[in-house]
Design goal:
Blueprint: H1 52-67, H2 72-81, E1 107-113, E2 119-125, H3 128-141, H4 146-150, H5 156-159, H6 169-190, E3 202-206, E4 209-213, H7 215-221, H8 228-241, E5 243-248, H9 253-263, E6 269-272, H10 277-286, E7 292-296, H11 299-311, E8 318-320, H12 330-334, H13 338-348, E9 353-358, H14 363-372, E10 375-378, H15 383-393, E11 398-402, H16 405-418, H17 423-429, H18 435-441, E12 445-447, H19 461-471, E13 475-479, H20 484-497, E14 500-503, H21 505-522, E15 528-535, H22 540-557, E16 563-568, E17 586-587, E18 590-591, H23 619-628, H24 632-637, H25 655-672, H26 677-693
Parallel strand pairs: 5-6, 5-7, 7-8, 9-10, 9-11, 11-12, 13-14, 13-15, 15-16
Antiparallel strand pairs: 1-2, 3-4, 3-16, 17-18
Length: about 700
């Protein structure tokens, strides 16, 4: 089995579904737009050509003049008056590429170079105050070198001194996005190697269909409309043999497309994240009469399904994986390594210790961990609330998180950020906490240093540099497991521009749908394109595209036809290989192809964010397994496809029952919003009880 490990110093902030509701004030602005094309020099006379140092005073003088007005109403008037300084942008240039994303009003900005190689800014907006801000930007920044624009402080919006009554947060975020759009276009003007447009593959979703940009995107799009014969064949097998399917979101697009179509005709097909796969299998067998369960996921998922069925008294139901070989998971394996048990041994010697373990681990890992130290399971969407609630209910609690190093580092970074926030902002995340309590918690938070998901490991420095450079104005999504750099991008986008989310796969899907709903509600006359950077495994795209398409089709039926959603796939520099120019967008003169140079998809070494183990769950494998079910000879051949079974307990609870204890603690927390009294008692007394026993 291939395993990637890397050590991580506390890096970037992190978020969960709870953080989606953060209402902290914007601190800085950043937002790369969607422009890009080889630009000619435009003969627009700059206001004046100044150095980077002088630029600060140019923009600052304008901001100071506005903020110096007696009251907010007068400042608004002065800002609106700045629209007179905005060079007009012809209708032909009011394109999606120049549209300011995340702005409540229609707004466009275009950055080009004048004859002296200095910035010239034009713009337009249907809202007076937005046009005024565009005029302020044009007057304050035109005439600079592109590099000087990138050095501008992002605090000009707050410095205008216009309060929230006249400039609500949504409007202020739009101003920040406009400034970041200008910066993004300047980055493109400075780009080397002939890059004139954002380089990553993407899928553009509309009510009328899906357009693929780049080779990898075309491969993803190929199966969005599944082969009807394949769907018919699968449904026939499932119905005839009473087979249920539980599958993870990260499946290959071909099998996901077929499964989603099959689910419309056969109710026992379920696609989700790992948390509820086993619950769905129990329901299929107990209530739906399924006799076999096909698990499309990695081995710990099928092992969990087998164990939970057995514990529910459903031992007769058969469970099958999609390969005879191991379908591994680098993260789950890290929690079964001696290093992890050494880490738990440290916790065993600490008073008021609680072990918060990620759901994506095996049941026996959870059982073994809970035998050493009180353990509660978490997901990427509730880990922040789990830790903060433990800290609120157990004074002096010592938190040991694992096994995901990136998630732990991001958690530490988030709390470090929160330790600088106001009490009001901290309380928006968790009402029982203040800046002081977060500071007190930080020294008592530990996380495992040697466990990573090989897929999320891909979202490192070079990928984030490219995202920031070419997609800074886009909506940033990141799984809680990504490296700190990607986490930071999404957190910055969330906190500074309200254009980011960090959380679980389900959080990301819900966020995309929410933003599409908002765009449909705006119903801007010229339409708008929302670009989402997908900071997780590419298998999520099938679910996202189908959900987005359904919303856009419904919107068009209701008379709103101008909204588009672009899903962008970040690509590592490890995945770059030269191919024909016509095949993909160029990055520095080299075409981008996720995966090996041979074009066979993604490798375990990285490239695109695609798990090679998850891709063992192919449509051919599924059909082969289904074909063998139901006959003695076929099922004999499937023996190697059965998941590992935990040994039944001779006395006392089974491994499955013991492994479910941390999950039940989490479900108590999800139901009640608090840790159970029994779990709190275990945390506060176990160490003392062990010491007394010695």
């Amino acid at each position: 089995k291939c395993r990637r490990r890397s050590r991580l110093a506390p890096s970037t902030p992190m978020t969960s579904s709870a953080l989606a509701s953060i209402k902290a004030p914007a601190a800085a602005l950043r937002a790369p737009a969607a422009v890009s094309r080889a630009r000619g020099r435009v003969a627009v006379a700059p206001i004046r050509a100044v150095s980077a140092a002088a630029e600060g005073s140019a923009l600052r003088q304008i901001v100071a003049e506005i903020s110096g007005a007696a009251d907010p109403a007068e400042r608004v008037k002065k800002l609106i008056a700045m629209s007179a300084h905005l060079p007009a942008l012809p209708d032909a240039d009011r394109s999606i590429a120049n549209r300011v994303m995340g702005c409540t009003a229609e707004a466009w900005v275009d950055v080009s170079l004048d004859a002296d190689g200095r910035v010239a800014i034009r713009g337009a907006s249907d809202a007076q105050i937005t046009a005024g801000f565009a005029g302020l930007v044009a007057r304050g920044l035109s005439g600079l070198e592109p590099a000087d624009v990138l050095n501008i402080s992002d605090d000009v919006v707050a410095d205008l001194g216009i309060g929230p009554s006249a400039l609500p947060r949504s409007r202020a975020n739009g101003f920040r996005n406009m400034l970041e759009t200008v910066k993004k276009q300047c980055r493109l003007l400075l780009a080397e190697g002939g890059v004139t447009e954002p380089p990553f593959p993407s899928l553009v979703v509309t009510a009328d269909g899906v357009e693929a940009v780049g080779s990898f995107a075309r491969a993803q799009a190929e199966y969005l409309e599944p082969d009807a014969d394949a769907v018919d064949a699968l449904v026939a097998e499932l119905e005839a043999k009473k087979i249920g399917i539980v599958a993870h979101f990260y499946m290959d697009p071909q099998v996901q497309g077929v499964l989603m179509a099959a689910a419309k005709r056969y109710e026992h097909v379920f696609i989700s994240d790992s948390l509820v796969m086993a619950d769905a299998a129990v329901k299929m067998v107990r209530e739906g009469g399924c006799e076999s369960i096909a698990v499309l996921g990695v081995d710990f998922m099928s092992e969990n399904v087998r164990a939970i069925l057995d514990d529910a008294g459903l031992e007769s139901a058969k469970v099958y994986r999609m390969a005879a070989d191991d379908i591994g998971c680098s993260l789950a394996e890290a929690a079964q390594d001696k290093k992890y048990y050494d880490y738990l041994a440290e916790a065993d010697g600490v008073e008021n210790a609680v072990h918060v373990i990620y759901i994506n681990t095996a049941l026996d890992t959870k059982a073994n961990a809970n035998a050493v130290v009180p353990t509660i399971t978490c997901t990427s969407s509730n880990v922040v609330q789990t830790v903060l609630t433990a800290a609120a209910q157990v004074p002096g609690v010592n938190v040991f998180y694992g096994p995901d190093t990136y998630m732990g580092g991001n958690l530490a970074e988030l709390f470090t950020m929160m330790s600088t926030w106001s009490d009001e902002d901290v309380a928006a995340v968790h009402p029982a906490h203040t800046q002081s309590t977060i500071k007190d918690l930080l020294p008592r938070l530990r996380y495992f240093q040697d466990g990573t998901c090989m897929v999320h490991h891909m979202f490192g420095g070079d990928v984030c540099d490219a995202v920031r450079k070419y997609y800074g104005d886009a909506y940033q999504t990141a799984h809680f497991e990504v490296p700190g750099e990607m986490f930071k991008l999404a957190m910055e986008a969330k906190r500074e521009r309200d254009m980011g989310v960090v959380g679980s796969t389900k959080n990301i899907l819900d966020y995309v749908c929410e933003k599409i709903d908002e765009a449909v509600a705006r119903n801007l006359p010229a339409g708008e394109r929302l670009s989402f950077v997908l900071g997780t495994e590419t298998g999520m795209v099938t679910s996202i595209v189908r959900a987005a398409r359904a919303k856009l089709v419904a919107a068009k039926t209701a008379g709103v036809a101008g909204v588009e959603a672009e899903i962008v796939f970040p690509v590592s520099s490890d995945a770059i290989a030269p191919i024909a120019e016509s095949e993909s967008v160029a990055l520095g003169g080299v075409a981008v192809v996720p995966g090996p140079a041979g074009g066979e998809g993604c490798s375990a070494e990285g490239g695109c964010a695609s798990c090679p183990y998850m891709k063992m769950n192919s449509l051919d494998a599924l059909m082969s397994v289904c074909a063998k079910i139901g006959t003695d000879a076929g099922e004999a051949l499937l023996t190697p496809f059965e998941p590992k079974k935990y040994e039944a307990a001779k006395d006392g609870p089974s491994v499955a029952a013991l492994g479910c204890v941390p999950i039940l603690h989490m479900r108590d927390f999800q139901r009640d919003g608090a840790l159970s009294d029994a779990f709190v008692e275990d945390i506060t007394t176990r160490h003392a009880a062990k010491r007394a026993a010695k």
